[in-house]
Each structure stands twice: as structure tokens, then as C-alpha cells.
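I am writing to request your help with a piece of structural work I have in hand. Thank you for your consideration; the sequence and its C-alpha cells are set out here:
=====
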Amino acid sequence: MRRLGVHTSIAGGIDLSILRAKELGCNTLQIFSHNPRTWKKPEFSEEVVNRFREYRKLYDMNPLYIHTSYLINIASTNKQIRELSLKMLIWELDTADMLGADYVILHPGSSSGDSLKGKRLAIDTLKKLRDMKSWNVKLLLENTAGERGDISATIEDLWELAESCGGLSGGLCIDTCHAFQAGYDIRKDKDIEKFVDNIIKVSGFDAIKLIHLNDSKKDFNSKVDRHEHIGLGKIGLTGFKSLLNHSALREIPIILETPKRSERDDLINLRKVKRLISYY
């Protein structure tokens, strides 16, 4: 069975995210390990961590993905921001190991317009991280939408960054909205074939470990990251059906990061995706 889930809230306790995913009928999930808009790092009691692990095992939630803080920017030309980002990344990886997560997902960041310099700074930071210690969890780098100073909007740039991680790298997370905004058209079969062939040529068949499935509120190649409900944006249901059932992608887990005013929004989007996956 295809692994399908959503980004699930940790409100009230990180262990409750597993129960929320179960209620939605998910068999995988993604979470933040803390408030992603602050540098503050919470502490987790042994009881909560044990309960989290027990729930995950009980309900077979695999793989488990942890998305890093929005504040992390390893491509920043501000040295203090890069140092804070490195410290937060270390904490994220340590926490992921404590929780038994499979992957930590990172947006590499942006560099105030100078993308080449930003990429060099990001690679230096990833090499420092790689050489510090060994973690059980693996790092997934996620493609971005191509906004000003963005260093990871192309598959080529993303894979270069991933390779700098050495053994810490788990591969790539491909976000459909970000790809669409960065100039990869995924609405028609011939374009999807071109997109998938490019990924395989650059990174190899096994590099993609997760698909972030999001429609796009903005027009193609707008370079603006605005997610939309599945089928209600500019990519549309036809594109998603072809993409999800492509022979190279049909076993890859899916996480939805679609807009959410209530849990019902997640249910509606999950049902749409299940209908699109012809063999689910």
C-alpha cells in the first residue's frame, strides 16, 4: 500500500501527532519537532518520547519525517544566522534520533540575491555538519520555488547540495508546488516524463524519498511559493494523476502540505489523492 500522510500538528504534545494522523487514515506523517518560527528548543520528557514511539509502532506510521525550522538558512551571508542555523540543525537531528525518525527535511535557504555565494556557504555548512558526528536519521534536501537568492530550485543545484552531505544524505524531497513555480511543468504527460527523466539523470532512480504533494495558487514559473488544495490550483487533477502513477514514482511516499483551516481540509485532500492513485 502506498504511504500517504499529511503534515500533522504537535499541539498539546508531540505524541498526539501520531493519533491525529491515525484519525485521518494516514500511514505516514510529517511533523515539526517544535515551533518552526522560533529558535527556542523545547525539552521532551521520557514519558512523551516513549508514548510517541509506542503509538508510531502500534499504528505503523512509516516513514516518519521531521521538517526543520523555517528560520534555518544555511545559505545566509549573515554569519550569525548560519551559526544559529547549524546549531538548530544539530538539535533537529539529535531530536529526530531520539524520536526514532527516518528523515529530517531541510530547505537549504536563500542568500539575498547572490545564489552562487549562498550555495558555497550552504555546502560549507553541510560539510561541517557531515563531519561533526554520526546520526541514525538521514537528511533530505527539498527543492524550492526559485524566489530571489534561492539556491535549490533546480534539481542540479539540489543534488549538488545533497552530495556535499556525504553519508548524512538520505536523498531528495520533491515538492510539486515548488517544482511548478521553479519552471518544471508537471501538467501534461510529456512534460512529466521530461521532469522525471531529468531527476533520474541527475540524481539516480533511488534519490527521491518523499513527494510533498501541493497544488499551486500561482501561475506556472511565477517563483512564488503558495500552496493550494489538490485540484484547485494551477497544476490540477490531471497533472497529479499522471505524476503519482508514473512508473518511477508510484512507490514513493506522499505527504500533503495543503492549506488547512480544519482537519476536514486534510480529509478532503487525502480522499482526492486516494482516488488519483489508481492502484491504492
